[in-house]
Design goal:
Layout: E1 7-8, H1 9-16, H2 20-28, E2 35-37, E3 40-43, H3 45-60, H4 68-98
Length: about 100
């Protein structure tokens, strides 16, 4: 990954009106990955959507940073279950067509 592809955490925080310490606390909890290059913190492009989701949960639903890991895990599980239901519905449709 090129350093050019990375998004400075400071820029992300300014854009979303959050403190850098918030992003660092998310990283400490293992909710997002941030990269350090020459003592500057960066967000990899693969983490931007997840980080934005956590920021929205924090700002719009007023979920405390300490509780975001629980909410995030629950949302991930719901998403996995939705994918599983979709896959099972597709299989069911396939087998119905065969009958």
């Amino acid at each position: 990954m090129n350093a050019e592809d990375l998004i400075p955490v400071r820029d992300f925080c300014v854009y979303h009106h959050i403190e850098i310490s918030f992003v660092q606390s998310l990283e400490q909890r293992g909710l997002v990955e941030i990269t350090t290059v020459e003592q500057v913190l960066f967000v990899p492009p693969s983490q931007v959507a997840r980080l934005e989701k956590l920021v929205r949960l924090h700002q719009e639903l007023e979920i405390h940073a300490d509780d975001l890991d629980v909410v995030s895990n629950l949302l991930d599980r719901v998403e996995d279950l939705q994918q599983q239901v979709s896959r099972l519905q597709n299989q069911l449709s396939f087998y119905r067509q065969l009958a």
